[in-house]
Design brief:
Helices cover about 15% and strands about 25% of the residues. A hairpin with a 3-residue loop joins strand 9 and strand 10. It has about 290 residues and is an alpha+beta fold. It contains 5 helices and 18 strands. The chain has 2 domains: about 120 residues, no CATH class; about 110 residues, no CATH class.
């Protein structure tokens, strides 16, 4: 087994970062979404074998500002540090993270006041001034306890997807880059919004004793993915021929890595080595898909 993995083990190259590089901007437009109109998740044409989705939305609070997730630099994605020796590594230097983080729709905390959610002596506290209740049927305040381990926010966001599709809530990508423990943790939930006309509320995991989750004006509080409504996957082992082909491909990548990464290798201030092998192959794959 060690000999099979040999091509992917190198000094100072932790597995989770070994192919991490800066990915150029392949986005298909700014995708700003401040009006009640369709959220375009693409151009509407087939690209790389898949048909782009159009997600229509309506909302009660315009401050939610749903849009395709963007990396914020400086901000939760890190600092705009160049890929040169001595720079500090940030999550955005990693192409798989960059693509993964921008895969969904981000939704913003819509209020002007800061909210702090904490747990003290087993009791959940909400510290924030939302003012007087509005003159409508909205529940107020919009955050409340939900059982003993969770709390909810009255989201009131409608995302209409096509037949055989659904939306899934999850933590915003900044949760994974945060070092303070204060980012809200949205609980995963799959909703079939073709026939369910409103996401009434979103569930968050409660902070642990002594911790605090902070909702700040202008900060994203969760991400939503658009996925097939069922996970129709049959997991089977590769046969010997296919496994051998994959192994050979891996060995070829390893053998050509010094050439592919010749102009893109750098060492961060934590002595972690990065190179552009994955980025080079990613560009090639996207180029083929556009042909």
């Amino acid at each position: 087994m060690a000999s099979r993995n040999k091509g992917f083990k190198q000094r100072q190259r932790p597995d989770s970062w070994r192919f991490c590089v800066v990915l150029p901007d392949w986005a298909q437009g700014d995708m700003e979404l401040f009006a009640p109109a369709p959220i375009s998740l693409g151009s509407g044409v087939a690209t790389g074998g898949s048909q782009m989705q159009e997600v229509k939305y309506r909302l009660v609070n315009p401050g939610l500002r749903p849009r395709k997730t963007k990396l914020e630099m400086p901000g939760w994605a890190g600092q705009p540090a160049p890929r040169t020796d001595g720079s500090h590594e940030f999550a955005w230097h990693c192409a798989p993270f960059t693509e993964g983080a921008q895969y969904g729709i981000e939704v913003f905390y819509p209020y002007e006041n800061e909210l702090r959610v904490s747990q003290k002596n087993g009791v959940l506290h909400f510290d924030g001034d939302f003012g007087e209740a509005p003159d409508d049927d909205l529940e107020w305040p919009p955050f409340r306890k939900f059982g003993s381990d969770y709390y909810t926010h009255q989201l009131l966001l409608d995302l209409k997807v096509g037949e055989d599709w659904a939306v899934r809530t999850e933590p915003h990508p900044r949760f994974y880059t945060d070092t303070t423990g204060t980012v809200p943790i949205a609980v995963p939930a799959l909703l079939r919004t073709e026939w369910w006309p409103m996401i009434s509320f979103i569930v968050f995991k409660s902070p642990r004793e002594g911790e605090v989750h902070i909702f700040r004006p202008g900060e994203p509080m969760l991400q939503i993915l658009v996925l097939p409504v069922t996970c129709d996957i049959n997991l089977v082992p590769m046969d010997e021929e296919e496994a051998a082909e994959r192994e050979m491909r891996g060995r070829r990548i390893h053998a050509t890595r010094p050439t592919l990464a010749a102009d893109s290798t750098w060492t961060s201030d934590t002595d972690t080595v990065f190179d552009g092998t994955y980025r080079y192959l990613l560009r090639a794959a996207k180029g083929r898909a556009r042909e």
